[in-house]
Specification:
about 280 residues; alpha/beta; Rossmann fold; two-stranded antiparallel ribbon
């Protein structure tokens, strides 16, 4: 089953199983033969390494991961794809397909049960509609992961990997950088998929930090502060934070002074360290 990048082979398999693409599930299967090997090589798969895949589709990337990793566990939501995967992965003895929703599966338990004693990485072609929620769940649950390598919409990749203190930066950029070191690996054109989406994609890798990038006294307050600041990003930090956190302007102004933050600055002008200092000043 090495012809899964051949469109006629894919169509034949899908027709055999009566499968129709679901727009609601954001199904776009990779057919570019060079993309999946590259993703599998750069995600960290290798002997002694377990790979968690999310949304295997018809198994193109899964097969590449299987050839490199110790074990692959793929979570697939669409039960219509289970018989397809059973056929396309029939000779991949180190692959296990789990039917479920990645936003509901007990990931900590899954990793403990399936990858005992292994280093674990995530590798996936994520549906665009659920990109940020999936990535943030993987990060926020502080799972024992080494890295997360995913293909996402190019615009989302730029936002997820944006540097704090730049115009492209948003709340999710700060959150990602708090937990991980993000980088864009390579671009993937829309013509690499079946059916082709309306946008191009990028493959990004998040190397998880052993400790968060900055020291925070109250993590919940830190993320509420970041969300408030970018939720009204045209306003000054003084106004957006006071409004978003329901705190008096005098309190925010005092915290800004203590943290060395200009009250008239806007969210996109603040570094990760500045947000941390402001959050710590507010919590104090």
């Amino acid at each position: 089953m090495n012809e899964l990048s051949n469109i006629s082979v894919i169509r034949s398999i899908l027709e055999k199983h009566g499968f129709r693409f679901s727009k609601g599930l954001g199904q776009n299967f990779l057919v570019n033969p060079s993309v999946c090997p590259r993703m599998a090589e750069q995600c960290g798969a290798g002997p002694g390494v377990g790979v968690l895949e999310i949304g295997p589709g018809i198994g193109v990337l899964t097969r590449e991961l299987s050839a490199r990793a110790e074990k692959v566990v793929s979570i697939e939501l669409d039960d219509r794809l289970l018989p397809v995967l059973e056929e396309t992965l029939s000779d991949c003895e180190n692959v296990k397909v789990v039917h479920g929703d990645v936003m509901k599966v007990n990931l900590k338990e899954l990793l403990e049960n399936e990858f005992s004693g292994m280093e674990v990485v995530v590798c996936a072609n994520l549906p665009y509609y659920i990109t940020s929620p999936v990535i943030m769940r993987l990060l926020e649950e502080k799972l024992p992961l080494k890295a997360i390598t995913v293909m996402v919409q190019k615009e989302a990749a730029d936002r997820l990997c944006a540097l704090p203190g730049t115009r492209a930066c948003g709340a999710v950029s700060i959150s990602v950088r708090y937990y991980a070191e993000p980088e864009i690996l390579f671009q993937v054109s829309r013509g690499s998929f079946m059916p082709p989406p309306n946008v191009d994609s990028s493959v990004i890798r998040l190397r998880l930090r052993e400790q968060p990038a900055v020291e925070i006294q109250d993590e919940r307050l830190f993320f509420r502060l970041v969300k408030a600041a970018f939720g009204q990003r045209r306003k000054t930090i003084l106004n957006s934070v006071a409004s978003g956190l329901s705190v008096g302007k005098g309190t925010v102004e005092e915290a800004c002074r203590e943290a060395g933050v200009i009250p008239g600055a806007r969210a996109e002008q603040l570094t990760l360290e500045a947000f941390a200092s402001l959050a710590n000043a507010l919590s104090a």
